[in-house]
Structure formats: structure tokens, C-alpha cells
Amino acid sequence: MFMMLKKTADIKMYFKRQLVKKQFTIDKTGCNVIELVGACFEADKPSIFGVPNIDYIKKEIKWYDSMSLNINDMKEPPKQWVATANDKGEINSNYGYLFYSHENHNQFSHVLSELISNPNSRRACAIYNRPSIWIDHDLNGKNDFICTNAVTYYIRNNFLHTVVQMRSNDVVFGYKNDFAWQREARNRLLQNLNNHLNSDIRQGKIIWQVQNLHVYERHFKLIK
Questions:
Q1: Is there a domain that residue 145 lies in?
Q2: What pTM was computed for the model?
Q3: CATH number, domain with residue 110
Q4: Would you say residue 24 lies in a domain?
Q5: Mean pLDDT of 151-168
Q6: Active-site residue among 31, 40, 125, 147?
Q7: pLDDT of 163-179, one tens digit each?
């Protein structure tokens, strides 16, 4: 079923080689960036560079579960979220809101219903991004063009596999936190499926597809 997928170790080695060769692009802020365009690999580890911050991950998932579109509802939001929000704290990218909310068309419920009715389905797709993001991303001073496009789930050979499709992903902070969310979302979906189907479907692979996977210059020391 799966082609020979790269692993997180392969992705780590790619960035190490690019750093040695000084293969950089220039970010809009003027800093050097190492990029991998069209990345596809099995997310077999919770981190590529650095160590996951478990306390922060728990806090972020709790905020996602609140479905709040305001970072001020997260205790001590990190500077990455502050830079994304407008001066009122409003953002677009609360993944709990995008996955669960009625306002974003009940993505979780549709995925669950689809897999219950047809476990072999190819369309159990939770859509995170939207065409209106071209207007919404900087509305009222925001800087938040949603990074995850969609997540599709497949039941094959009694495993629930997850394919995460992203527009953009920072290897250091972004991957760790996004992986934690996608693993949590997958596990919740799996529990619901097994309860509804009275089955014992198991955790499958998480496949990470990113249009632009990158490391910023401030994190080059982690690559070394």
C-alpha cells in the first residue's frame, strides 16, 4: 500500500546537508532559510530537531479544544501566536475550531460518519483551509494564513492511517506542535470509530506532506 517513505531521520539529514552546502533562500524578513519543497515522509517521531515541550503542547491542545479564535484565551501565548494575531488577539488557526466547530462545517463529524458508513472510503477528509483565507489572513491586522490545508483518514487492513497535507511547516516549532495535535485528533477519531463500529482498529501511520518544510536561521544551531 505504501511507497518507500522517507522517515524523520531522512528529513533531518537533508537539512544537515543543506546547511553544510549553504543552500539558503531569503525570508521576507531578510534572514536565511533552508527549505524542502514538496516534502513527503512518515511522521514516525514527535520531533525532527529539538525536544517537544510537553507542558506547552498540553496548553495548546486545551486551547484548541476551547475552539476560541482569540489567543488571549490561552494563558501566556507564545510570541509566535502573538505575531500572528491582530491587536485584539484574533486569529484563524485554532485547529480545534477548524476540526470540530459547526462554523467550519463539522469536519470531525463528517469524517467520522463517512468512515462509519464506508470504512474503505477515500473521502474522509477534514478541510482546514478555505478559499476565503486570501481575505481572512490579514483581516483587521492579522497575519494568519492557515498552514494546514487538509487531513485525510483511511482505514486499511484494520489500521487508521492519517495523511496530513500542509501549505507550510516550520521544522523546529511547527512540526512538534502540529504532530502532537494530529496524533491527538487521530486518537480521538480512532476511539469514536471503535466505539461506533464495535471494532478494534489500530493506530496506523501518520504521513506528512508539506509544500514547504523549512528551518529558519535562528534555529541553524539545532541542525549543527
A1: yes
A2: 0.96
A3: 3.30.572.10
A4: no
A5: 98
A6: 147
A7: 999 999 999 999 999 99
